[in-house]
Amino acid sequence: MARRVGLIGCGSIGGEIVKAIASGVVKAELVGLFDIYPERCRSLLESTGISARIVEGLEELLELKPDLVVEAASQEAVRRYATRILEAGVDLVVMSVGALLDPKLAEALREASARGGARVYAPTGAIAALDAIRAAKLSGIKRILLRTVKNPKSLGVEASSRRILFRGPASEAVKRFPFNVNVAAALTLASGVEVEVEVVADPSVGRNTHIIIVESNASRIEVKVENIPSPSNPKTSWLAALSAVELLRRLTGGDWLVVGS
Ligand SMILES: NC(=O)c1ccc[n+]([C@@H]2O[C@H](COP(=O)([O-])OP(=O)(O)OC[C@H]3O[C@@H](n4cnc5c(N)ncnc54)[C@H](O)[C@@H]3O)[C@@H](O)[C@H]2O)c1
């Protein structure tokens, strides 16, 4: 069971993770962390009262012998660091799931995972029902649709009325909106079917809303999740950070009962 955790990225999600370790919700030791802005790590440690080494980069982090590293930074960080982490035999939690839709990178990570004997975990993130979708996959999934509706501020665009910004496959959506549609990537990876994505900017909404429709031989699943944006980063939903915390809690804890597949 993972006990020694390393962290890449001290922003909104990294902050929730450090808070959860500091409060004992996640029973693990934070051994080291880094960010391209090291002052973000410093203020996180100060505000939570936790002590951990702020390192300059990945090699220094690996010297601290973490058994799990959480990437809560960017798709670029996944491309830069993930292979090396897995080769070192260290498990990896990837938040910037969109990066995993790049087939070349995914193949490199699969090989590195086999070489290092380490695994990649992609948390459910800002949505629900990945468990049911994984189960439905066994029956055959015909189609998945994702409609993401956010306030223009959360999408980093200007729009004075409701506007469809994008319609297309998940692999394109994660390139166009790298900080917004990680859920499209998680759905694609869980189902094995490329998700059809619609991204809508709507100034009248305050919540980051995802509507998911799955047509499978076993079920028709329709899910709507209305998320409160994280106060420190409106592109990220609070639930996404909590999903990472919950995954870490499971990976580091010893619960006698595991609910959900
Ligand atoms: N899986 C999901 O459902 C989901 C949901 C929301 C966000 N995300 C993704 O998770 C990642 C983190 O989200 P956040 O809201 O915490 O973002 P954030 O912007 O609040 O924080 C990211 C931090 O990582 C740092 N960083 C970026 N690239 C780095 C690199 N190469 N090396 C070291 N540090 C680096 C930044 O300086 C920043 O402090 C983003 O890629 C985001 O798209 C995933």
Question: Describe it for me?
Answer:
The structure is a single chain. This protein is of the alpha/beta class. The chain has 2 domains: 4-122 and 240-252, NAD(P)-binding Rossmann-like Domain (Rossmann fold); 130-227, Dihydrodipicolinate Reductase, domain 2 (2-Layer Sandwich), CATH 3.30.360.10. Helix content is 38%, strand content 27%. It has 10 helices and 13 strands. The chain has helices spanning 12-22, 38-48, 58-63, 75-87, 103-116, 130-137, 152-155, 170-176, 182-191, 238-252, and strands at 4-8, 29-34, 53-54, 68-71, 91-94, 120-121, 141-150, 163-169, 196-201, 208-216, 220-227, 229-230, 233-237. The strands form 3 sheets. It has a 6-stranded parallel β-sheet with strand order 3-2-1-4-5-6, with helices on both faces. The protein has a 5-stranded mixed β-sheet with strand order 8-9-7-10-11. α4 links the parallel β4 (68-71) and β5 (91-94). α1 crosses α10. The radius of gyration is 18 Å and the shape is globular. The model has no long low-confidence stretch (mean pLDDT 95). Nicotinamide-adenine-dinucleotide binds at residues 8-14, 34-37, 40, 72-74, 76-77, 80, 95-97, 123, 125-126, 179, 182-183, 233, 236, 240.
